[in-house]
């Protein structure tokens, strides 16, 4: 008789580790001060720029409805998309250059996820207390005190998130108009949607997800290694100096006293003593924490510091590290960055704030009018991209006796466009039958430098 087959035991493999709540300890030091300076600077710009006025309108406004971007007196139109592409390329190369030199300093100091997480953590500390108090509060059952603290925290988070969403929409809808509508509870459906959507995203990312955004959602953490090399400055633990660890000073032991403060202050919850990890955002909180401990135990700072792999392996001095920063990869990125930035700046400086498109009336190939003159009809699309109004003169040349049969002056307000119908006439006998190239010229009467030309074709019927 055959023995029964043993039952197959099912094994559940989790593809996503359950999140453990991280309560970073508050830390003080030079890098914490620098990080908060970046928070103040970036948020002063983000919240303040929509309210800045220039030439009677919002200085920074991306008016999608009118298809105009106002940037400190510069007006960009859909035809100017090349400038946006250039700006994005400059930002990308700037990020590559900075990453090659100093690792993820963008993530640690200026990334919106880091900035808003710092703001939300500050609110959390002010309401719920320090790290130990927050951990105890997590473990406590729901009481009136816990409910009040959590409710106050989430209310404060929600207000900051809503103001952030309002400021974001203020870059696309005039912010003063938006504020008037918000106070009158008359926001349009799209404005209300985006205020709530961006506010919810801020609330969720900075309040709830925090380090998960950096670990699982941000692509930068995944491809940063392509820009790193052994001479990139990263937050590093000096293994040779720190090991073996000892809780107390002892002969033959390293400088690390295994206090775990470097882990407690880390916003992503990693142990920097295990080496470079993709979760590390380079915020240097562990450096501030470790330096404070080294000061208390009477040992030199720098057990955890910004260093390179080569510097740690070769025990390099700070001067040698700085000399090695100007290596071929950095020079290459730097030259490309400077070249692109110079080309972009030159193109922007030489840009003429006047555009002209000529569209020929295809309904009539050319006709004979009074006195035997030959007439063609065109539509001139004139675009004044400057912030102030100008009076322009329309001229045509290319065929002898060619002239404008209509009013040859056109006035355009600042940052506006207008379609101008134009009839061009040529005296009989001045041009043979067929097509002839002509050129329209548009020039501002009050500014000779504002002058553009556009080619067209004049048809003489057979």
Automatic annotation (TrEMBL):
Every 4Fe-4S ferredoxin-type domain range: 246-275
Keywords, sorted A to Z: 4Fe-4S, Electron transport, Iron, Iron-sulfur, Membrane, Metal-binding, Transmembrane, Transmembrane helix, Transport
One Pfam family hit: Fer4_18
Transmembrane region(s): 33-52, 81-102, 155-172, 192-209, 330-350
Name listed for the protein in its UniProt record: Cytochrome c oxidase accessory protein CcoG
Annotated organism of origin: Massilia aerilata
């Amino acid at each position: 008789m055959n023995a029964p087959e043993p039952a197959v035991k099912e094994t559940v493999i989790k593809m996503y580790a359950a999140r453990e709540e991280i309560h970073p300890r508050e830390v003080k030091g030079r890098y914490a001060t620098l990080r908060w300076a970046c928070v103040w600077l970036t948020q002063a710009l983000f919240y303040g720029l929509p309210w800045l006025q220039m030439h009677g309108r919002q200085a920074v406004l991306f008016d999608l409805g009118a298809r105009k971007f106002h940037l400190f007196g510069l007006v960009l139109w859909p035809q100017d998309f090349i400038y946006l592409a250039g700006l994005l390329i400059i930002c990308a190369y700037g990020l590559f250059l900075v990453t090659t030199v100093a690792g993820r300093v963008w993530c640690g100091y200026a990334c919106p996820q880091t900035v808003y997480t710092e703001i939300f953590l500050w609110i959390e500390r002010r309401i719920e207390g320090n790290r130990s108090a927050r951990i105890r509060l997590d473990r406590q059952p729901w009481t009136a005190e816990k409910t009040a603290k959590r409710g106050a925290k989430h209310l404060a988070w929600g207000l900051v998130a809503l103001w952030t969403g309002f400021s974001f929409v203020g870059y696309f809808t005039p912010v003063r108009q938006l504020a008037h509508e918000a106070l009158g509870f008359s926001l349009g459906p799209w404005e209300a949607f985006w205020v709530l959507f961006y506010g919810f995203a801020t609330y969720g990312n900075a309040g709830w997800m925090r380090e998960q955004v950096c670990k699982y959602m941000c692509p930068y953490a995944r491809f940063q290694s392509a820009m790193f090399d052994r001479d990139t400055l990263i937050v590093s633990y000096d293994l040779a100096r720190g090991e073996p660890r000892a809780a107390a000073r002892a002969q033959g032991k390293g400088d690390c006293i295994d206090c775990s403060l470097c882990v407690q202050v880390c916003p992503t919850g990693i142990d920097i003593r295990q080496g470079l990890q993709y979760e590390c955002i380079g915020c240097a909180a562990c450096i501030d924490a470790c330096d404070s401990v080294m000061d208390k135990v009477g040992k030199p700072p720098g057990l955890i510091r910004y260093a390179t792999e080569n510097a740690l392996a070769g025990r390099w001095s700070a001067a040698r590290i700085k000399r090695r920063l100007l290596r071929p990869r950095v020079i290459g990125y730097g030259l490309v960055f400077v070249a692109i930035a110079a080309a972009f700046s030159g193109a922007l400086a030489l840009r003429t704030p006047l555009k002209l498109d000529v569209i020929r009336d295809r309904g009539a190939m050319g006709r004979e009018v009074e006195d035997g003159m030959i007439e063609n009809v065109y539509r001139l699309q004139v675009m004044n991209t400057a912030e102030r109004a100008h009076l322009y003169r329309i001229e045509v040349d290319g065929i002898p006796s060619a002239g404008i049969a209509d009013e040859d002056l056109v006035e355009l307000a600042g940052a506006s466009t207008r379609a101008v119908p134009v009839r061009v006439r040529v005296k009989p006998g001045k041009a043979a039958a067929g097509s002839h190239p002509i050129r329209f010229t548009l020039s501002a009467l009050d500014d000779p430098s504002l002058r553009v030309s556009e080619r067209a074709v004049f048809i003489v019927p057979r």
